[in-house]
Structure formats: structure tokens, C-alpha cells
């Protein structure tokens, strides 16, 4: 995107990778060397300054002063014994099939299966049934088309064979119909559903029909329904986001079971879960008109029944306002952190009047936890480069890359690996505090998401380090236009005219950089405030002060860059001048080899 706005600002992709991507990635892990961390900080500082002139970003932090507080909790949920058994079986017997293939060669297929296990094992069966229905429908459609084509072939071949043929004693044609008959039989045979592959049925001996009703097979389901129950008591509305339509289907099944099991003498609202009355659903199949209708009904302040919205992450994380809710459950982690972040902003936006509480449910010790760790790393990278913040390095390179590591914290196994993150003592949310007491066996640990992204002022670069960062970057990105041309051996091979041309180019480069520097005059903070006040006369003084400081910082960074470029070009020009002068002097003092070729009077 930057290259589209400012061509070649960051160089070619190869140059950008060598100057920024590799150094920054090498230094952002918990086990990075001190040297790599130092280089990472310096390159992130340089990249931030280079981008300051063309990239401007504002995130939700701009809204915090206008909105109630937001608390975002990440809950590491312990998996059940059945989930452990199925997860381990899949890794050992299915994902490892064909040992010749590289580990992770089928990553996204494995992710789909494993994500169904950590959501609830019954999701595997629902997914398989859904797949079989889709295959059957597809076959029916294809076979209908095949039958139509076959009938056309039969009709056309019959017409052709009837032309000029004699009729038999019964008045029928003697045409042979063997070929069309074979085609027709083949088409009919294709109508039968495809046989199920062994891979799709790997879980059959581990799962039974009665497992569909057992919510305890999933810690996530247990915690979700406790959150719904407690939120109902507080008259809070809830959004539940999931990437999986199968997971949403299963949640609906549990809602229906909960509705049937409720006390018939209870109030109309208490424990009632009727679709489009007590809860709503939005996914990719929801039309635009229904999408707007259910959102308006959900947000209606007089609607006390509608208190839950089930939403597909891809379909509902953008372009919808659901501020009637103040609690968000992110049922599964996305590969792209922006999906989960945007899901939260369905409630954390203008119009929100309550405190917002977000619960990210992660299956502890599974691939999902690794995906979340990657989310944090991506956000940290963004904050470092675009927002110029220093974020603590939480994860090692191994932890980020080894997605198939399976180390759950099991209650009945004292040798299982325990959670490494310390758990805060008192959560600010009453619901989470109750969950920690009632369902402490399901929650391995929890932490506030923002705590992993705090800016560490003590890790900021000093002024001297910032200048050194620019000097190192300049030395690497402009090995000069001089190293190749200014090495003594290379210069010696050039003619006097070529040397003078090289010297003139060097002087021109210095002049251009000097003029660019002169254009960037330093201004006081009051100058920026005055200009902003003229543009935004109604803006409060505090806002003007913040915007003025950001503007001044951006200009200071640009002027620092221009000054560095000027000094570097001047130093190179001075070095080149001395080298060329030395070459000219040596050529003047060389004794002519042939007296007859010496200069004649009047010659220069």
C-alpha cells in the first residue's frame, strides 16, 4: 500500500525484506539475542519515521475518553478428557498419516478438524453430516444435468440412425441402443451418494449418539452458558462470535435443550431460548434486509426478551451496530487478529452506555493457543512500527512456529504442563469472578489482553541510539552510490572526464539534500496549535494540543531524516573529492615515458 502511495519509498520487496522485515522479525521473540533485539528496535524506529509522512492511523484508543471502560479477558479453558483423547488420537493416527509428507503439509485441514474437537467433539459429527448432505446435493445436481445430456444424445443418435434404415416386422427400427444405454446406466449409478472416506470416519469409535447431549464434553460450552445465565440476571445482552457455522449450530441445539429443560412455571423470559425472540443469528446466508431487521430489533430498548446474538465472525464482524449488548464472547480465535478486534467494535462504539466486557475463550495447550500467540505478535509488530511503541516479547520462536505441540493442563495428570501465565487475583468483572469460583476446574488461567500489549517506556531508544539507527540504516541502504565507484581501484581506472562527472554528480546530490533540508523549517508547538485552531475552530484545547504534538513529531522525524541524508551525502562528497584530487596529483607527477610525446610549447 505504501508503494502505491509513494513509489520506491521503501525500495524493492527484496530491499524491504533485507532492511526491515528480517531484522524486525529476528528480534521480536522472547529468545532473540540482545543484538537482534537492539537491531529490531533501531529498524522499527527508522521504519516508523520513514512512514510518518504517508501513514496515519487511529485506533479505538481515540474513543476511550468518550466511552465507558472496556475489559478484555483471555480465558485459557481446560479441555475435557474426551477432547484430549480425540485430539491425541487425531495427531497420532490421522494427521501423521503418510510419514513421508512434511509436518503441517495439511495445516488448514488439520486446523478445521482440531478446531471442531476443541469447540465440542460432536461438531465432528455435525460437520460430517453437513458434508454428506452437500455432496449428495451436488451429485443430484450434476446427475440431473447428465441425464438431460444423455436423453439428448439418445434422441439425436436415434434420429441419425433412423435415417435410411429399414423397419423390422413389427414396424420398429433395428437401431442398436447399446451405447446410449451404457451412458444412461453410468449416469444413474452416479446418483448414489459417495462412499465415506476412512479419514472422515476416524472418530466413529470414539464418539456415540449420547455425546450430543453432554455439554461437559466442552469447557467452552460450559463457560458460555454460565456467562449467558449470569448476563441474563444482570439484564446484559451478549454477542457470541464464532468462525464455525457448525459451532453456531451446536450452540443452537444446546439452547433448544436448555429451553426444553427449564421450569415451566418460571417467568416468560427466564431460561427461555426461542429463535428470533430470545436470540438471533447472523451468518453469510442472512439477507441484508433481515440483517438490518434483527439488528434493529436487538437494539430496541423496549426489547427485553432478545438478549443473545449468535454471529459468524466473517459475516458479522464489520458493518453492523449492536450497542445494545455490552458483553462479547469470542468463541474461537481467528488467524487474522483484525477479525476478532472488529468483532469487539460491534459493541464498543459511539452509543454504548455500559462497561464492555470481552471474553476470549482459548482451548489451553492446543493449536488455538498458538494462533492467539501469533495474534499478539502481529499486533505487537503493528504497534512497534506504526505506533512507535515498545512491547514486551512474550513468545519464543519455537512457541510461534510449532503449531502441532499439544501440552494441555489436565486435572488428573500431575505431570501435565501447567500454564506459564500468572493469573491476576481480582478481576474487575463480577461474572468472571463468579466463573473463577464456580468453574475453577475449567479455567486454567486468565489475563487481560491489553496487558500483553502495554508500552514499555524503559525499552525506548535513547536519542544517541536513534541517531545511530539512522547512521546504520544509511550505511546499509546507500553503500554509495560511492562504494562501488569510490574504491581506489575503481577510480584509478576512470578517465579524468569520468572522474569530473562523478564529482559533479556527488556535488549535485549534496545540493539537493541541502535544499530539501532548508525547506523543512523548525516550528514551535504554538505554531502548530495556531494552524490547527484555524482549521478546527471548535476543537477543544486538549485535542488541539495532542494533534499539534503528533504533527510536530512527524515533522521532526522528517527533518531528522533529511538532516541525516544531507550529512551522509556531504561526507561522501568530501571523501570522493579527496580521492579524486589524489588521483589527479599522481597523474600530473608521472614522468612521460617517451620524450617525443611531451607537451609542445603552447599545448596544455
TrEMBL record:
Residues 464-490 are annotated as: Disordered. It is found in: Nucleus. Pfam families: ATRX_C, Helicase_C, SNF2-rel_dom. The keyword Lyase does not apply. Residues 226-399 form the Helicase C-terminal domain. The keyword ATP-binding applies. Its main location: nucleus. Keywords: ATP-binding, DNA-binding, Helicase, Hydrolase, Nucleotide-binding, Nucleus. InterPro entries: ARIP4-like, ATRX_C, Helicase_C-like, P-loop_NTPase, SNF2-like_sf, SNF2/RAD54-like_C, SNF2_N. Belongs to the SNF2/RAD54 helicase family. PANTHER family: RAD54-LIKE, TRANSCRIPTIONAL REGULATOR ATRX HOMOLOG. This is Helicase C-terminal domain-containing protein. The lineage of its organism: Eukaryota, Metazoa, Chordata, Craniata, Vertebrata.
